[in-house]
Amino acid sequence: MLKLLFIGDIVGRPGREIVADRLRRIRTEHAVDFVIANGENAAAGAGITGSIAKSILESGVDAITLGDHVWDQRGWENEITQIDKVCRPANLPKSNPGWDHLIIEARGFRLAVFTVLGRTFMNNVKADCPFLTADRMVEQLRSQADAIVVEVHAEATSEKIALGWHLDGRVTAVLGTHTHVPTADATVLPKGTAFMCDVGMTGPYESVLGREVRPIVDRFLDGMPRRCEVATGDVRLSGALIEIAASSANARKIELLTVKMG
Q1: Do 10 and 49 touch, CB atoms closer than 8 A?
Q2: Cβ distance 150 to 157 under 8 Å?
Q3: pTM of the complete model
């Protein structure tokens, strides 16, 4: 049996700090073999930089995935190819720099991971069909890895759930990110694929999706633009902890793991 921890969207400095402070202890306490983290909000709540990516990897993360904010930080398009444990969404145009998947290894077991962006209610990036892209990637990676994990970075729960059913039995896990709110639907689907609509946010929960409360509330009230800084209160690490049967690559168990700072 192997264990995977998939950490939800790391938001700003608070998210990075709790990963640095708690992850190695979590790996030991839960005998975790693989750690994958979404880092698309790691730089001040929007995007990532080369130095931040390296610091997250140094904290004990094995692979970093990204989402629709992948290109928010200036210069990242030049840095992404210099870090071999970071991948951008697989359904972005082929002209985009960076790797469209990663393969990590522990105890002789090879785990592939890739991300697809949803298209429902997400109009800020150009993305191909996540279903067809996932089909293509699974076929490509089947001979290269012992198990495949798919991250679906999407807004609509229906789109995430549909992709989970579409890939059931073909991948080890389909895990949702982007909405920052952990969901109560962690399950192993009938053919052995672990699924969860959203694994949650790693960052400040005394917030509105990681941002300070007052500016967001005021923006809803009057519609005026405001600077919305990353919040600092009630910092938690949130993710999905999955048990994988090495012989079949099927998921045996999935549960939400939440750890508070301090």
Answers
A1: no
A2: no
A3: 0.96
Total structural domains within the chain: 1
Q: How many CB atoms lie within 10 A of CB 210?
A: 23
DSSP, collapsed to helix, strand or coil, labels residue 252 as strand
Kindly report, residue by residue over 85-140, the tens digit of the pLDDT: 999 999 999 999 999 999 999 999 999 999 999 999 987 788 999 999 999 999 99
Indicate if 101 belongs to the active site: no
Average pLDDT, rounded, for the chain: 97
Rounded CA separation 39/37 (Å) = 6
- The encoded tokens of residue 200 equal 């949650």
From residue 168, give the alpha-carbon distance in Å to each of 2, 3, 7, 39, 145. Answer: 19, 19, 21, 26, 17
* Distances 26 to 30, 52, 148 between C-alpha atoms, Å: 6, 21, 23
Spell out where 118-182 has E strands. Answer: 147-153, 173-177
Residue 51 belongs to domain spanning: 2-260
- Residue 188 has a pLDDT of 98
Cβ(96)–Cβ(88) under 8 Å?
Answer: yes
Kindly report the CA angle at 83 between 23 and 131, in degrees rounded to 5?
Answer: 85
Instruction: Identify the active-site residue in 69, 101, 153, 178.
Output: 69
Euclidean distance between the first and the last CA atom of the chain, given in angstroms as a whole number? 30
pLDDT tens column, 16-69? 999 999 999 999 999 999 999 999 999 999 999 999 999 999 999 999 999 999
Say which CATH number the domain at 238 has: 3.60.21.10
C-alpha dihedral sign at 57, 60, 66, 70: negative
Residue with tokens 């048990």: 243
Q: How many CB atoms lie within 10 A of CB 51?
A: 10
